[in-house]
Amino acid sequence: MDRLRIPFFAVAMLALGLAILTELAAADLFLLLTGGRENPETPGLAIHYLAMLDGLLFYTVSFMALGIVVPRSVVGRVQGITTLVLSFFSLLASILLVMLAFGLLILMVSLLVAVPFGTIAYMAAWGHFATGAAGMTLLILMVLKVVFCICLVLAHQRFLQNKGLIILTAVSMGLTWVVAFLHAFPPGFLVSIADAIGALVIGIVGAIWLLILLIGSIFATITSLRTARFS
């Protein structure tokens, strides 16, 4: 039971990797399936922003797997400094993404309420949203994430003992459903605004998680340096 079941783990990581690639840039297939012919990329910002959380999930699971097959002392030293560097620069990037989503949201709302010319400009630029392509993309994402969860548990039960991993996985799947709701609930001409709100929420959640990782990695690095110094 202490061995990592490589086939299940490989499928889990493949599913999560495909989910991240889908979030970054969905293929033209999604629009073809829904009858669309324009704007072949993933519509909106929120789906793209989900890659931030799933990237964190991929990184976390990778190091947990290393901890199973490699001595924890070795993994701990490498993980501390690696997490410190990556979380710092990722946090900066996430702050920029939050600012981007917030700025776009303010712009769209300002144009929408600036009757009549601002409203006309808003309707021309963001009045139509490819909800069909977005819905197909989100459905595929949920299937991939369910496959990831099932195969990860089958790969090793130790993954269930990590509360941070469970919470991050739940947040990722939950926000995927939230984005689907934001795309389906409001009237068509307001979906772009709802999508920007979703992207803003995802960006803030990702930034908070990265900040927690950064603080934890600072303490882990200090502890690792002290241990190496006195060993």
Notable features of this structure?
mainly alpha; 8 helices; 0% strand; flat; 231 residues; 81% helix
Report on the structure:
The chain contains eight helices and no strands. The chain starts with 5 loop residues before the first helix and ends with a helix. By secondary structure, it is mainly α. The protein has one domain (6-230). It is flat. Mean pLDDT is 85; it is low at 27-37.
Q: List low-pLDDT spans.
A: 27-37
Give the CA-based shape. Answer: flat
Number of helical regions: 8
Sheet of most strands = none
Query: Gyration radius, to the nearest Å?
Result: 20 Å
SSE order, as H and E? HHHHHHHH
Mean pLDDT: 85
> What is the share of helical residues?
over 70%
Short description:
81% of the residues lie in helices and 0% in strands.
Lay out the secondary structure.
Layout: H1 6-24, H2 28-33, H3 46-69, H4 72-113, H5 117-126, H6 131-155, H7 163-184, H8 191-230
Helix pairs in contact: 1-3, 1-6, 3-4, 3-7, 3-8, 4-5, 4-8, 6-7, 7-8
